[in-house]
Amino acid sequence: MTRLFQRLASRWIAGQTIDEGIDRVRKANSRGILGLLNLLGEHFNDREQIEVTIQEYSRLLQQIEESKVNSQISIKPTQLGMTLDYDFCLQNYLTIAEECQSRSQNWLWVDMEDSRFTQKTVDLYGRLISKYPNSGIAIQANLKRSEGDLKILLELGGNVRLVKGAYNEPREIAFKSKSQISENYSNLMKMLFLQNKRNFFAIATHDSHLVQMAKDFSLEYKSNFEFEMLMGVRDKLKAELVSQKYKVREYIPYGPEWFAYSMRRLREKKSNIFLLFRSLFS
Stretch 83-94: mean pLDDT, rounded? Predict the structure, then answer.
């Protein structure tokens, strides 16, 4: 059963090693698509494990540079120690951001996890962007607080990846219906386009309606943005956007924790199951 699931998951996960991740980016680049690599893993509570993770990202950045593939990296806060100590986690991000800057001005993205970590992650990114403009943060449209967070981040000169949000959050703090989340996503998207090139941003969605809305906004507001989508999802749409001269980036996870990652994502939201299986035919 595990072997069967591994074959299925291989559509959305590059493999277990850096070489497999780089190879997947190379294939994406050959189709005109940029890469965004993420080493799988989260909620690390062992400092030695976190140090190994930092070393892995260092090797990954070296491989990106040496192989000359076009890819950035994205890291979850709990992968770098957020559950242990905020300052420890911040220092680890600063270390990796410095290496990104030294390696062809590559970019470091801060992933957003569940709502327990939202405020600390926004605070951490505020410290990061003040020193490293080659960094960005994900903001989740399903959270009711995100409009306020986005206003603060734009004032700081932050670079934002706008996502719908994959975590099943309480009704008190999150929009629950698909229509509510899409409406909030479109409102946040308009805020990004209205900033008039002051910040770079990414529209990260597989929703055709929201993609079209972004294309319409881009005609009215000349902004510095790109589309981002998961590896193996909406590949025909990615190709269509590339043919229309839009920048498209593919989020490419890899690593030995592929099974735990896959099962956790499928448990979190029923819509994730629908998204993954729909991608088999898109």
Answer: 98
Chain segment 186-224, per-residue pLDDT in tens = 999 999 999 867 789 999 999 999 999 999 999 999 899
Q: Cα 72–152–97 angle (5° rounding)?
A: 30
Distance between CA atoms of residues 107 and 109, nearest Å:
7
Structure tokens at 180: 């509510």
Closest CA to 149 of 167, 166, 165: 165
| Single-letter amino acid, residue 110 | V
Mean pLDDT to the nearest integer, 260-273 = 57
> Which residues lie across from 202 on neighbouring strands?
161, 226
- Residue 267 identity (one-letter amino acid): R
Q: Which amino acid is at 26?
A: R
Count of C-beta atoms within a 10 Å radius of residue 86: 17
pTM over 0.85: yes
- Which residue intervals of the chain are DSSP H helices? 2-9, 18-30, 47-67, 86-102, 118-131, 146-155, 178-193, 208-220, 235-243, 258-268, 270-278
Token pair in block for residue 178 = 């698909």
Instruction: Record the tokens describing residue 256, joined without a space.
Output: 């030995």
Contacts (Cβ under 8 Å, ≥6 apart) of 153:
122, 125, 126, 137, 139, 160
Residue 258 confidence class, pLDDT cut points 50, 70, 90: low
Nearest by Cα to 80 from 126, 36, 41 = 41
Exposed / middle / buried, residue 135 (Cβ in 10 Å: 0-12, 13-18, 19+): buried
Please give the mean pLDDT across all residues of the chain: 91
Q: How many CA atoms lie within 13 A of 264 on its CB side?
A: 13
